[in-house]
């Protein structure tokens, strides 16, 4: 029977990578000199599963490597070895190595085993002489492999005496005997001498014994003379301790040979090549063209069940509407409306449920950091504690995959540049152990991820000087702290004096910012000099669907993300006041809110003489990253969910727009990007201010 | 053809075994750990064979074997342990708990099918 194991390999890879993470987390949770048995057990179980699976699926390099590793873990488990830093480190290295090997297998490449062998030697060195016990072949295989000289052996004589408890383990002598019949022509004698009188007989016990001769060729053509003792013993392997078994070769001169079979398995060589080659054919890495690995997602079955329930409801609604359509007349209009409402509710629920399928806890992204902090703090000679907060916060899988790199970058930055060395910290009166904190939480329709440290903080003056040096700002510019901090995210800005191999590899925070913005998010930074820095990333919960408010400006329909809207109001001309520059602000209760004309910003309206452009009737107050602006719009239309289509893939990136969508009537509508609009309007304002300051007179900026 | 309960926390192994057995015409019920398996064994009947991994969270395969043997419906039902060659101690522990035999990893579908022939009535 040929079974293609490939379909299970992908699952196995995923499980193994999860297992490796468990191992890593466990190892990082261990303290020098203390062995936490629960953790060791978890690690052992993960290693053991990976070993068993990789052997089964033919990943020999992984199997033999984990085998050695498992030996070491076993010693720890049995309390023969304490977990010291050396052991922990080498086990961490081993985890990496398995990951590397596994990735190679996943990509259908031949794994590079040099590194694995080196590491294996290191493991064995630690493991010492005792390492061989686990790798050594089992004692019974030595006995089993006694074989006779082929030309002399005629067959086998077997005496099988089950102990009376043999049946209780679920074994059945009849089945064992019928197995024997496959090995040659069988004749047997059953002895029932031990049978007690019927009244004393316990039906759960076995009272019989058998004497069997395997001699000659059976119906299938198997000659008992070709059978090896090991094959016979294998049949009785499970009942070894529940029976007395005698296996003797039958020779013309009745002389057993003690020559050993040559095909004994080598220690550590877990895959039985002979067998796997014969059965499944040789495994070559190039057997199949390397295909892109399908990405899979693990979903709580409850979520799938919920989805199935909802589809059930949808089907009911659909059949209800179908019936209604068969013989429709206007008297049934109210039922039609009801049905359509039901349909709308069904589709919205299904949509929510489908979105939930893609939601994963952010711990998937956070999990790599304990290791990273562990390694880097050793490398940097700093004492660092990592705190993870809100690991259960869920976010879209796609978003999570894409913020991985930015997060790594920010954490590396904190470790490298943010936190001080222990002596510096002590000198400043801080705890010698620095803290890096990763925190995730939901806020409105966004997910917020903070990377904070209690290190140096940002030096305003240093950043300013650097900005001037790089030509990003002018010495005469008056900037708020916030604006200065944002310089960090400008292209070509780096404050580190020396480039270390930890951060500052030419990729700057500008890339981080760009990545986050391409996801429709934003990043900002707060800092107190000497006390620490907080980077805050804000991301939309999902990339696919948006709750939108439709609005009209200059005859165009736009979509505004509903969750960014604070309120909408009719413009009261008395509440508008002009500030210095071109800025118009709207007084809303106690706050002054900058007014932004979309018509001007996108230059869609006709050029109007100054003072006449504020004809818009409505002001929509929107917020992004704690900043509020008022958008002037002509009209507010309905609210609806829209499916986001990327502008970049279909056209090109347009500032102020995050994408496009197709409305119910088939028209294309553009989706407004609030963070982009805030940024654009701020820039326009600043330019206006600067021009005015420079020229001394009011200039209109289009 | 038998109804077989397969218990393994690793989905890849569990599914591979299930797929193989189903391909050979058996009915397969899958469980992710000992707790779940025990619950299934209490609720359902007619199992002709149980195949369980040894190393599992919640309830390991050996404890499970002991528990299954206490159920009248599974008293004489063959129970096979999935183990690795290093686990000689485990084999003995498993036998003491009432396991019928074991299946040593690595195994391929053919070996699996050959092995279960030894215990399937």
Automatic annotation (TrEMBL), chain A:
Residues 545-683 form the CheW-like domain. Residues 256-289 have a biased composition (Basic and acidic residues). Residues 333-360 form a coiled coil. Its EC number is 2.7.13.3. One of its GO terms (cellular component) is cytoplasm. One of its GO terms (biological process) is chemotaxis. It catalyses: ATP + protein L-histidine = ADP + protein N-phospho-L-histidine. Keywords: ATP-binding, Chemotaxis, Coiled coil, Kinase, Nucleotide-binding, Phosphoprotein, Transferase, Two-component regulatory system. Residues 329-543 form the Histidine kinase domain. Signal peptide: none annotated. GO terms for molecular function: ATP binding; phosphorelay sensor kinase activity. The modification Phosphohistidine is found at residue 48. Residues 1-105 form the HPt domain. This is Chemotaxis protein CheA. It comes from Mariprofundus erugo.
TrEMBL record, chain B:
InterPro entries: Bact_response_regulator (IPR050595), CheY-like_superfamily (IPR011006), Sig_transdc_resp-reg_receiver (IPR001789). The modification 4-aspartylphosphate is found at residue 53. Keywords: Phosphoprotein. Residues 3-120 form the Response regulatory domain. This is Response regulator. SMART domains: REC. Gene3D superfamilies: 3.40.50.2300. GO terms for biological process: phosphorelay signal transduction system. Pfam families: Response_reg. SUPFAM superfamilies: CheY-like (SSF52172).
